[in-house]
Structures are given as C-alpha cells and as structure tokens.
Amino acid sequence: MSVVGFDLGFQSCYVAAARAGGIETLTNDYSDRCTPSFVSFGSQNRSIGAAAKSQVVTNCKNTVQGFKQFHGRDFSDHYVQSAKSKLVYSLAQMPSGAAGIKVMYLEEEKVFSIEQVTGMLLTKLKQTAESALKKPVADCVISVPSYFTDVERRSVMDAAQIAGLNCLRLMNETSAVTLAYGIYKQDLPAPEEKPRVVVFVDVGHSGYQVTVCAFNKGKLKILATACDPELGGKDFDDILVNHFCEEFKKKYKLDVRSKPRALVRLYQECEKLKKLMSANSSDLPLNIECFMNDIDVSAKLNRGQFEEMCAGLLAKVEGPLRSIMEQAKLKKEDIYAVEIVGGASRIPSIKERVSKFFGKELSTTLNADEAVARGCALQCAILSPAFKVREFSITDVVPYSISLKWNSAAEEGLSDCEVFPKNHAAPFSKMLTFFRNEPFSLEAYYSNPKELPYPNTSIGQFLIQNVAPQASGESAKVKVKVRVNVHGVFSVSSASLIEVVKTTEGEEPMETDQTVKEEENKMQVDHEDQKSQAVENKDKKSDAEEMETTAEDTKEKTNDQPPQAKKPKVKTKTVELPIHSSLHRQLSSDVLNMFVENEGKMIMQDKLEKERNDAKNNVEEYVYDMRDKLHGALEKFVNEADRDAFSLKLEETENWLYEDGEDQKKQVYINKLAELTKLGQPIYERYMEAEERPKAFEELGRQMQQYMKIIEAYKAKDEQYCHLDELEVTRVDNLVNAAMVWMNSKMNQQNNQDLSLEPVVKVQEIQAKTKELYSACNPVVSKPKPKAEPPKEEKTENGPVNGQEGTENQPCNEEKATTAGTEPPTAENKLPEMDID
Ligand code: ATP
Ligand code: MG
Question: What is the pTM of this model?
C-alpha cells in the first residue's frame, strides 16, 4: 500500500512518499522534484506538468495555470472576474454556474470544470508517484490552503476522485508544515508542561498563510491561523509586469497586453528578475529579444526600486502576524521560533518584516519548497495501517465560525446558533438536541462574512427526515450530530430519534448521553444546544436537562444534586433518521461519474498518443542511427550497391517524416520501421556476428586446451587422473581433435570470406559446438576418485599442481577432494581460469 503526500501548489506541486528509510520527495519524468501546476491541451493529447509549462508561450491560449484559486467559485465571482482579465487562456461558465476553463482540445472547443483540470494535474502527480514507487497509488493526503472554505475543499476532493485517488485527509498546508517540523523534534516539552509555541509562515505563489502551533511530546495543536490570499509571489509578479508594460509603452510604444504571447514572456522574465533581486541588490537587466513586432526590449531594476513599488503589498505582511497573536492571546515572548517556508519567503523584505515583527531571527530548518508535501506524506503514514509511525496527534482548527439556523418549532421565526466558533479544535463532532413534530431543515453558514475570503457564506441545507410526534403525542426528541471532519469540511453527519419506550422508577439504567469520539483527537464531547432547547416544548425541558449533558454541565449538575440521589430511570430506543444534504456548489454524482469516466478516456488518449509518438520517434531514431553507421561501423558488412539503395531509402524516409509521414497512425510508423529493418537487420547481424565470433572461438579454444592438458597429465601418469578410464580418455582425445579440425577449418573459411556476405559459421553454431564438447568430455574428466581409507604414512610436501592449492603426494586410489571436471561453458558460469594458461 502506498503512502503518499501531494502538495498541490498554485504554481508548483511536490510529491513525497513514506518509505522504509523515511520520507522522500519523489522526482518526476524530468528527474525534477517540482512539477509545475500547468496543463496544456493539444490537438492529439494533453501535456501536464513540465511538458505543459514548456508550451506556455507556443500554445499559450490552451495552456492553463493558476487555476487553484478557482475551486468552488462561480464564474460571476468577483475574484474570477478580476483574475480573468490577467489570464491569457479563457474562462467560461459551466452549466452549474461554476467557473470553467475553455480550451481547444482534440481540435474542438471544450470547457472543463476546475475539478477536472486539477484532476488532470493530480493524475500526473499520481503517475509520478507510481513510477517512482513502482506500485499503484490510491491512498494519499492532499494539501489545501488553510483558508479554503468547505466548497473549495469539496471541489479539491472531487478532483482527487476524478484522478482515482483516495484522499485520506485534505490537510491544511501550514498544518502539514507543523507536522513536518514537530514529529522529528526529540526535545519537545512533556504533555503536562507548558507547550513550545512556534509560528509558521508560508509565502507561496498565490497567498500568504500564518499559523501558530503549540507542541508537546507526541502532539501538536494549532492555536490560530491567518492569511492573505492576495499576498503571494504572483502579486509581486503582477506589479513588475504592470511596471514594465508601462515602461515599454512609453519607451517602445508597445501595447504588451494586446499580445498574449508577449505577456506570457514578460511574466516569465519578471519572475526571473524577482528571484534575482532576492540575491542581488544592484541594478539588474531585463532583456527580451524579438519581444513584439520584432522589437528587442531592455530595461533594468534594482531591489530598492522593487521594494518601493511593492510597498503596499509589503505593508500587508504584518496584518496576519498580528491577527494570530491576538487570536491566540500570545505575547511575542511566548514564541519559541518563527519558521518560514514557501518560495516567495525568499524575498528579503518579507523576511525582514516577519523577523522585525517578532524581534527574532527567522528559522529555516525546513525545506522551503518541500515541507508541505513531506508533512502530507507523514500524515498519510500516520493514517495508513501499512505504516508504523511514532504516535503523534494533530489538532487543527476550524478556520471560520460556523452557525446553524432553522425555523423554530414554536413559530418564533428563525433561530440560529454558532456551532463551531473560529479556531475551535478540528476534527470535531457535537451533538445537538431538537424537539420536533415533523421533518425539519438546518441551514449551515459561515457566521462572519468579513473574515471569509469567499463571497458566499452558505455551506448547505440539511433536511432531517422521518420526524413524527411520539405515540404519546409529545414532540419527538431528535439528536443531530454535526461535525467538522478530517478534511475540515462541515456536515450534519447523523440524526437519530430518541423514543421514550418506558419510564419507571428504579428499574432501568439511566440513559446516558451519547458521546462522540474523534479518532484523531481522542476527545469526547457532547455539546448541548441551548438555543434549540429554548424553542422546545416547555413540558419536555426537565427531561432534556436530565439527559443532555456537556462536560461542564455535568459538573454543575453534580453540584446541584446530592451524589447519592436516585435518578428517574428511562428506557429509550434510538432510530436513525435519513438526512438529505444539499451543499453549496456540490457536483452531482452523475456529473462526477461522467468526469471520472472522461478522465479515464483522456488518460487512454494520452497513452495512445504517446505510443504513436514513440513509434514515430523510433523510425526517426533508426534513420539517423543507420545513416551514421552505414558509413561507419557497418560499412564493411554491406556491398556498395546495397549500401546505396539503403541510404536512399533512409533519405526518403527522413523526407517522408517531415511531409506525409508527419502525422500518421501508430501502425504506419511500425510498418515503416519494419520496412527499414528488413534492409538493415541482415547488415547489422553480420556486424554483430563479426563482433562476437572471435569470443566464441576463443571460448571453444579454451575448452579444448583444458581437455588437452588433462589428457597430457593422464598420459604422464599424474596421480590426480590415474583413476580415469583409458578408453574414455581416448574418446575425449578424439573428440577434442575433431573439434580442433572443425574450428580451424571454419576459421580459415571465414577469414577468406568477404564480410558483406553471410558468415560461414554463426556464433550460435560455435557455442553449440562448445556445449556439445563439454557434455561429452566433462563427465569423463571430472569423474571422482574412488573412496579409500585415509593414509597413515608420513606425508611429503609437494608443490601446487596446475595452480591448485598444495596437493599431497598420495597413492593413486586415495580420495582427493579434487574433481578435475570443468564448469559448463555458459556465460554466467565461465570455465575456472586456474585450470588453463
Ligand atoms: P501556493 O502555496 O500559493 O499554492 P506554490 O506552493 O506553488 O503556491 P511556492 O512554490 O511556495 O508556491 O512559491 C512559488 C513562488 O515563490 C513564486 O512566485 C516564485 O516566483 C517565488 N520564488 C521562488 N524563489 C524565489 C526567490 N528566490 N525570490 C523571490 N521569489 C521566489
Ligand atoms: Mg505552497
């Protein structure tokens, strides 16, 4: 089972995996750890990642980037509309009203949803992980900005599903960083001690996120988060681009924004310049050749001027820092360290401002680019049963306060209640109690629109069904569980009807309130919704107070009542109620299934196109390779007439590749290659035969020499061989002589043969001869000596024989460890060299 984390960045993505040796950042097919968040659409296929980024100038209208911030947004959303004017590709409205991306794909105009485009990017990241890990990938943890609302988070979850991923957790980017920091720290304070408080700052391409986190041994707790989604690397790029657009208008009379290609090139150069300015404070040039209308442009800028231009942006750095300190009620002295990550955190003036705010040197112990992906992989390892990781509990926060509103039963109009205040621990569940006679609806919404970087406060409607009065006529008691899950998404996760079956004194055990356990936090919470009870039937109130308890309420009640007091006994039955949820901007399962299916088709199309391209490349490669070799290594192995004919054929094929053969089906290329190899293969084979032949003859020669030596030793009455049978040794002698005659004759014939003709003898035949000789001779010469009693007489030392370790001068029939046989002449098991010269 794979354990993978994906940092789904606005500009670039990283993939990390947990392996036996620890967390590893994986490289893609370009051997790069960073995969650009780009998708490019072509007439035959899609390109994703680095391949797409390389088309950003040549295929600018169909190469999309920067789509992360469109998740869950309407086309009419002001953010979408203002971003639209800066994009060189087109946005369009989906039938649902959501923002979509309009491109030419397979020579047709297509509108893709943002979920589909992110799904494509995730497909690429999944493939990267699969090829690095050499196994299928499904379980994963994916990062999202901590400021994403429910609808944006659900949209990323849908994208994961489209890519065939099973997202175990959507993890806030900064929370992933806190985990990557904390889990390795050995010196964290004990659980009962004052926690170590660390601030994490992530300045990415799209936005700025700040988190303050409390660490104790084995756990971390996010205390507060703050963000500015409009303070990232892209905003600095925008300022630079605006500046140079103005300058080039004045200097060269160029309207850069009228030419998408020029605009894309200017963005690229401005980003490079911005990065250079992080390392140099002197004047730096910006030169673009043939920028527009064949005009070369040039300009220069230095860090001081850049900081002046960006003063407004830089002034925004402090706000979120102040916000987290206020939210968490911390003083600067409480902060142990300030860790900074994200590409744009390298801008010196950002670092200075953060450092100045805290009056502290910034720590950069984490890898600024990879920390998010590594944290996600760690979280995946914690969640995966396949991996053993040190126990580490992560408590995140609810980013925005969430309230519920409903129509009150007592016709008092709308009631509402804040169920999760901002910075409430997450994941978390709470139980609410309602008294109702009929199905009722709860509307969840973000209660503080001002803190929301999203225009719509609605989360969704939850209709609690099948509610009817009790048999007694009293209102039904309905318990509703609301939760913010591991993905940071709110839901009404269950509802149940509590039927009072019997009320007697002292017979049945007291009903205790249901407790809800969050696996992650090991917290047991039961939240009593006071307002919902305020609208209940007054008769019921006493019942409800007895049964509904929160942690604090229990304490109060135990104070009210003597500990021994007998409580009324109530027997109840719980009936699960169906809930119909209609969430803001939710994709229907039909649409989602269609997207999943379409992604599968597009993956197949890309695969076929890749195979077609590979087949074409094979033809091209063969042409170039053969053309060189025909006048090089292969020259001697083909006669002049055939060489000329083949050269001509190669030249024709090369021309064909640029003309009719430019865009053909895979099979056409396969056939073309077959046509060429039919001519080239015999030449190549003759060349290979000539290369291998000497080695094969040498092998046979060595084999023969070895047997000849043994025969000689036998004839010289060497005690090592005197047990061999004479007739058999003579047979070996004859076989070796015959093989020698065969070899000499073949060698002679071959030496007199022109290399452009079929060889007289093939390597395979020589190898077969070697094997044949071995099979016939080896059993004879390697026959072991018969066993005999160990000698008692004195031994005299003798020198080594045939290079073997010192053998002893012993009677012929005495057992010797040696078997003079040879190893089979296979490539893996070569003849022992010690036995021959
Ligand atoms: P996000 O986190 O917003 O989704 P991301 O994760 O893709 O985006 P990063 O890779 O963290 O973003 O950062 C990319 C940004 O950092 C780009 O704007 C890039 O130009 C900027 N950047 C990278 N290196 C430097 C540098 N040396 N100086 C200034 N900016 C840099
Ligand atoms: Mg990032």
Answer: 0.81
